[in-house]
Amino acid sequence: MPELPEVETIRNELLPHIVGRQVTGVTLFWEGIVRQPSVKEFCSRLIGQRLTRLARRGKYLLFSLSSGEVLIIHLKMTGSLLIKPASAEVGKFVRAIIHLDNNTEIHFRDPRKFGLMRLVADAGFIDDKLGPEPLEAGFTPQVLAQCLANRTAPIKALLYDQTVIAGIGNMYADEALFAARIHPLRAGGDLSSAEVKKLHRAIQQVLRSAIGNKGASTDTYFRPDGTRGTAHFQFQVAHRLGGESCSVCGSPIERITVRNRGTYFCPKCQL
Ligand SMILES: [Zn+2]
Hints:
alpha+beta, 27% helix, binds zinc ion
């Protein structure tokens, strides 16, 4: 599932192809991908507009339009946005195409069809649903401590909860906890201030490194040019199936379930 580093990579790599371009058409192969407004209204309001800005908030992509409206895209489990020349073949799992005036198209590829597009007058409601951005200057160890204070839920579950911190999902929660040497089942509110500091550093380091490696292609994630990211080659615990050993102590990595999410950790290093 695309998390902050994957969505940030898509933003960075889509940006030079689309900003300033005009939408000349929309093709839908699966209408359910448009959640708001009606399909007819979505297309008529989008076509003719210029894309003025592309931002990321959490795992959401926000395309600002010349009218002041915002096209929101969420890739959910299996979505990717591919940039293609107008003559390109349409792949099997492409659910929508946004045609641009530079003979370029954005192909929304989404095998499992959980991804979505919404066209709204104001995207401010997204801020109300999300916790702080973990790579912004305002996200200090003190802010993380406030996010976790008095929380009895397992730290793993708090890290992937978008209302606590925006953008972290299952993979990077496991990686950050390993880097901070914290057991995924510890209650968030029980971490010492030294542990919160370590976790803060680990979160930023894991996310920045993954952005540098253009995201993790463990399953269906592609960069806009169709190539794969390499961040998963750096993973220490996430997706380490079948008793692979810890790179630090050699113990077998364990898999447990935390609130229905498969969770990988080293039982010796993470306390
Ligand atoms: Zn270990």
